[in-house]
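TASK: fixed-backbone design
INPUT:
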């Protein structure tokens, strides 16, 4: 947290939900850094975990993730979906 704060990626703010707590909030610089890092991170995860798998075990996983997304509690990823 301290290093991310020193780099201007996050800032500490009093929690609006609990006066005893402090929230870490992304700054606009942090949001930009996250957006820049996302494609490379997603490609690494795909290469490390999914590229070597046969399509058969991926089909039920894809179905399960679609059901989770259909609930509407998570944003649908942009791209091929």
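OUTPUT:
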């Amino acid at each position: 947290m301290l290093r991310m704060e020193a780099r201007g990626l996050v800032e500490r703010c009093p929690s609006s939900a609990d006066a005893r707590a402090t929230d870490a909030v992304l700054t606009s610089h942090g949001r930009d850094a996250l957006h820049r890092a996302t494609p490379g991170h997603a490609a690494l995860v795909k290469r490390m975990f999914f590229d070597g798998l046969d399509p058969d075990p991926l089909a039920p996983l894809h179905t399960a993730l679609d059901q989770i997304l259909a609930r509407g509690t998570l944003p649908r990823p942009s791209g091929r979906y």
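COMMENT: The mean pLDDT is 90.
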